[in-house]
Amino acid sequence: MNPLDWPLIAGPLPVILLAGALLALAWLVAGRNAPGHGWLRRGAWRRRAGGAASVRWLAICVPLIVTVAGGVTAVVTWLINNVWRPFPDVLPFPLVLWSWVALAGLLLAAARQVPLRTWPRRAAAIAAGFLVLAAAANQVNDYFQAYPSLRVALAPWLDPKPVYTATVHVPEDKARPGQAVQGIWHPPRGMPQAGAVYQADIPGIRSGFAARPGYIYLPPAYLAAPRPQLPVLVLLGGQPGEPRAWVDSGQVQAVMDGFAARHDGLGDRRVLRGRHLRDPARHAGAAAVPLLRGHLRPGRADTGQPPADDQPGVPGGCCRVCPGGPAPRASAHPVPAQRRSLRGRRE
C-alpha cells in the first residue's frame, strides 16, 4: 500500500504514533544525555551533557517548561474564544489539550539543544519534538475525523481541480410537470462514464460576502449532449473544514458516480460551499442560490426521506447539517426550500 493511503484515524498507525510520542517525551525529559548537574551555570553548555538527568532539571526546569507551554496555550485559547472568535463555538477540550502537549514537546526539544554537544543528538531531540507534534496533530485529526489518510490531507496539491469557466449551451431534455426525468431520459452515445468536479468562484450576489472557492460536481448525464434538466444540491462545509472536504474526505464524486452508473448517468448537480465562520447560517446560501436554478429540500438524495441520526451531514467538525435534494426520478421541478438548524431540526 502506498504510504499516502495509510489510515490516519484507524489501524495501527495512530497507536504507533502515540506510543512513539510517549517514548520521545520520556527521552526528552529524563533520557540519556539529558541535562546533568550544573548545566545552567555559565559556560556549562560547552561541556558534554551527563548520562543522567539532574534533580534540578527534573524538579524545576521540566515543570517550568510544561507550565509555560500550558500558559501560552491557555492565553491563545482565550484570545481565540473571546477576542478573535473565528468560530461560533469555543475550542473543544481535546484540541486545547493536544496543543499543550505539542507545544511542551517542542519546548523540551529546544531546551535539550543547549547541553547536547553533537549535531546527531541535537537532531534526535528535534526529531523527538516533531514526533510529539505529529502525534498530537493526529489526535486532533481523530477527534474531528477530518483526514482519513495523508493523501486526503494533501489532495489540494496532489489532485487540483480544474476551474469551472462557463456553461456550454447544449440542447436539453425537459420533463413536463409531474413527469420524472428518468422516464424521458435516454443516454446518448458518447456520454462520459463518470462525472467531473470543478472549482468555481461563486459571487455573493445578495450578501456581498467574499466566500472561499466552491466546488461543483456534474454527473455524466449533464456532460452529454443533449442533457437533462437536473436538480441542484448544495452541500455546506463544516467548522473546521472547507468546501473541498466533500470531495476528499466525503468522496462525493465516487458516491455520485456510483449512483449515476445505476441510473443511466443521472444525478444531482452538487455545489460544495463554505460558510461564514462566525455565523454559519448568515451566508450559507445567500451567494449560491441566486446563481443556481433549483431549490433545496431536506432529506436524502435517493429517497427524499429525512436522514437518520447516524448519517453524517457536514464533514470536518462538530456541525451537523442535513442537506438533501429530490432524486432525479422524483421530480424535475424546483421544490420549496426549508431551512434546517445545525442539529438537523426543521425551523
Task: Report on the architecture of this protein.
With 347 residues, the chain is α/β, with parallel strands linked by helices. It has two domains: 3-149, no CATH class; 155-291, no CATH class. The protein is 35% helix and 7% strand. The protein is built from nine helices and six strands. The protein has helices spanning 12-30, 55-84, 93-112, 119-144, 150-153, 155-158, 181-184, 245-248, 252-262, and strands at 172-173, 196-200, 214-218, 227-228, 232-236, 269-273.
How would you describe this structure in keywords?
347 residues; two-stranded parallel ribbon; 4-stranded mixed β-sheet; disordered C terminus; 9 helices; alpha/beta
Secondary-structure blueprint:
Blueprint lengths: L11 H19 L24 H30 L8 H20 L6 H26 L5 H4 L1 H4 L13 E2 L7 H4 L11 E5 L13 E5 L8 E2 L3 E5 L8 H4 L3 H11 L6 E5 L74
Parallel strand pairs: 1-4, 5-6
Antiparallel strand pairs: 2-3, 3-6
Helix pairs in contact: 1-3, 1-4, 2-3, 3-4
Summarize the structure.
This protein has 347 residues and is of the alpha/beta class. It contains 9 helices and 6 strands. Mean pLDDT is 77; it is low at 42-50 and 276-347.
Structural class: alpha/beta
Give the neighbour order of strands across the main sheet: 2-3-6-5
Helix content: 25-40%
Regions with little confidence, pLDDT below 50 for 5+ residues: 42-50, 276-347
Topology as a string of helices (H) and strands (E): HHHHHHEHEEEEHHE
Quaternary state of this entry equals single chain
Largest sheet: 4 strands, mixed
Q: How many β-strands, per DSSP? A: 6
**Rg for CA atoms:** 26 Å
| Number of domain modules | 2
Distance between the termini: 46 Å
Mean pLDDT, as a whole number?
77
Overall morphology: elongated
If helices are DSSP runs of H or I spanning 4 or more residues, what is the number of helices? 9
Strand % is: 5-15%
